[in-house]
Specification:
Blueprint: E1 12-16, H1 21-32, E2 37-42, H2 47-59, E3 64-68, H3 74-85, E4 93-98, H4 118-141, E5 145-155, H5 167-187, E6 193-198, H6 205-210, H7 213-226, H8 235-245, E7 257-259, H9 268-273
Parallel strand pairs: 1-2, 1-4, 2-3, 4-5, 5-6, 6-7
């Protein structure tokens, strides 16, 4: 665990999945605006980008702790909050972002290796949905949530359309949406806000790891046709919008699924019928 120097009275962002991609982009952005210290949780798969993030947050004059663990279990949430308490004061977490992934793809009734067995189902739901609750519970129980704190889950457009072997991802994200709504009702009277940010495909290290350069080129071309803007959205655009959601101007959002897809699914039927 690494940390920079600073005052424990400052406000913090807790970001699950902070070492790369969207999580890292959000961590860097909120260190600059509204100026939060960063407690980033990561599995250690991208040590170089995790190190770069530490430098970027410190260059913004903020403290940073990169805590390596699998964040998907209730035990990890308890241990992570205990580690956070070592550097952060009570009621100091202004922003919590759930940006971890680890889903299985496949088919529920397949007879092959892509069958979605019970272990894969449990693991996906723990990572993509249940862990949001585990961390919200642990932060609230430890009295670490700052006044008017923001808790944010991340969603994709798979709740609107069907994509081959991603049924388990869609189901877990549907559970996450329900968790967001119910936590919004429970935490709302305490002054906190819980929302879900839905955005389209962005280019991340994980995406580059999964797809070949040729497949990525096809992916970008398809998104250029789908999106009214004629291109994919970027990590930086998503991260900048999270800084807005962390600000006072967005204080009335609660229990919302906020559409930041840029109209990604508007042309799907047109593309099918008029290719």
């Amino acid at each position: 665990m690494n940390e920079g120097g600073g005052d424990t009275g400052q406000e913090w962002a807790v970001i699950l999945g902070a070492s790369s991609g969207t999580g890292a982009g959000i961590a860097e952005a909120v260190a600059h605006k509204p100026g939060l210290n960063v407690f980033g949780v990561h599995r250690g798969r991208y040590p170089d980008t995790a190190s770069q993030l530490e430098q970027q947050v410190r260059s913004a004059g903020r403290r940073v702790v990169m805590w390596q663990a699998d964040a998907s279990t209730p035990e990890a949430a308890e241990a992570g909050v205990a580690a956070l308490r070592e550097v952060a004061g009570l009621r100091s977490v202004k922003l919590f972002v759930h940006s971890i992934a680890g889903a299985s793809v496949g088919h529920f009734l397949s007879a092959g290796e892509d069958r979605l067995h019970a272990r894969r189902i449990r693991r996906t739901f723990d990572t993509m949905a249940h862990s949001f609750v585990y961390w919200a519970q642990a932060l609230a129980d430890a009295d670490l949530l700052a006044p008017e704190s923001r808790l944010l889950g991340l969603q994709n457009p798979l709740d609107e359309t069907h994509l081959g072997n991603t049924g388990l991802i869609s189901a877990s994200k549907a559970a996450l949406e329900m968790y967001v709504r119910y936590l919004a009702m429970e935490l709302g009277p305490r002054g906190h806000r819980v929302n879900l940010l839905k955005f389209g495909t962005v280019m991340t290290p994980a995406l580059k790891h999964v797809y070949s350069p040729e497949a990525l080129a096809r992916l970008e071309a398809a998104h250029a046709k789908m999106n009214p803007a004629g291109r994919m959205s970027t990590v930086e655009e998503v991260a900048r919008f999270v800084t807005v959601l962390a600000g006072e101007e967005a204080g009335w959002f609660n229990g919302a699924t906020i559409d930041f897809t840029g109209g990604m699914t508007l042309r799907l039927l047109d593309l099918v019928l008029n290719p």
